[in-house]
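Budget justification, computational time. The allocation requested in the original proposal was used primarily to generate structure tokens for proteins on the priority list. As evidence of use, we reproduce two of the resulting records. The first is shown immediately below.
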Amino acid sequence: MMKGLPEGIVSYNNPVKCVHWNGSFRGANSPEQTFPVMVECENGETIPANHVIVTVPLGYLKEHYETLIKPPLPLSKVHSIQRMGFGTNNKIFLEFEEPFWEPDCEVINLIWEDETPLADVKPDVNQFWMKKIFGFTVLHPPERYGHVLCGWIAGHESEYMETLSDTEVKNYMTEVIRKFSGNPSITPKRILQSKWHSDPYTKGSYSYVAVGCSGSDIENIVQPLPLQKTDTKPLQVMFAGEATHSSFYSTTHGALLSGWREADRLITHYTQSQNSQNFSSKL
């Protein structure tokens, strides 16, 4: 994909501080031209643009919407951002010298003795966080991945796990696996865990429709700025990402489809503009 882009067009390790819109900005390379949008980076660099597609995770948007976009977002969009849910789902990869599971095993589920669907139990997260792990997926084929299990953990327990070191998590996982397998000699040789909640640019994993939220909130978040048709240039700030897809939120393909949606929106806008100009010239 990168081969089809002009050299130097992609910027790395250059965080955006603020997206200024509904203005009249001039670029250093084209002082005679004005742009409605200016992207301000943390290193002081500014990038003028006609359109910007914001694709930051909803968790980041929840925490930074007041400073990321100026003028401020309309209240309808802010309220929808606040109502939408954004959770944390982490993975714990454990590698072993030899498998202790059968060759055809796909999943190892964990069932704790004191679990009950009839009681809303809120245990001490610091002490019992590992009980939120509901099982392990066996990675196949072993010729490609080795002998690896992938554990799944979500919620506040997942966020607490991120505060622990790899050694601490490894010790807890060793204790859990030995307890459930009955084999006191099992020891993972390596561990790798994701930390989506503590990542400053994600603040979680993916979105969900929370209580009090609806599909209309997703539609509100999607709407480009400015919201109303005015004399200002349209489609200045657009929004994409998994949280903006009404059907496939919380998924990677939802994020991909939302990007295509906004690209199509721009293509349609310029195609209609060109057709309108052609029609006017014929008249």
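The second record produced under the same allocation is shown here.
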Amino acid sequence: CLDEGVLQCQSNIERNAQDENSQTNWKRETGRDAVIAIVLWMLVVAGRSLTMTCLQTTLDFWSGLHIVLFSMSTGTLLSACHLLVYLARGMKNVAEHLVFLLCSSTAIDTADIKDDWKIILACMRSTSRCMQWGYASVAGTVLFIAFSVGGDLWQTQGMAVLPNMFLCCCLPAVLLLVPLLTTSVCDGVPPLLCLMEPRGGDYLSLSLFFNASQAGFYVCSTRVTAGLIQKFIYITGIIAITLASKALHVG
């Protein structure tokens, strides 16, 4: 069911971004994100293997099984993060394609632009519904890893914390990147229209229409903005650092 939803969202995005440059940029950015995800996965798994080697003089069957399961779970998590960023970049390209048409056209039809934006808005909402639970799961994983670091420090397993700490520092970038690629891009369209010179269309009316549409990324009917995620990361970081410092002080 999830695979069908992702494929449907992908086809909707490709249908609404028919510009060849948008498709090329989307593929190039997706390939770069995939390389980054693979490198991060290799670093985290290598760090876990090295820490276990340093903590244990001999590696038994259970230690090897732990590394295998850790590599599988980390690969699944980073694959989910890559999928979220992949769909978010697609939504960004759809919005930027319409903005490019507005900036390059000598004359625009306000009614046609509004109709196109309604289609893009419906595409973004359907994609958000497909992404929301995966995004919430990544946010919950960030909380779990951040608080587990304090538990590891409480048990005086200092070196074992390093791979989890590295992963915990990388995952918030995904949470922040998704609204930056979607909500922030949509929020930047109305100010751009206000600065454009009239060329056969009512730009002020379009600006008000885009602003009232509240386009962007949604989780459970809640509009996710970059400011909201920054507050989440800040509060989570403060709590995790406080718990870790108390654990080190008690230890």
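A brief technical remark on that second record: Strands lie at 217-219, 222-224.
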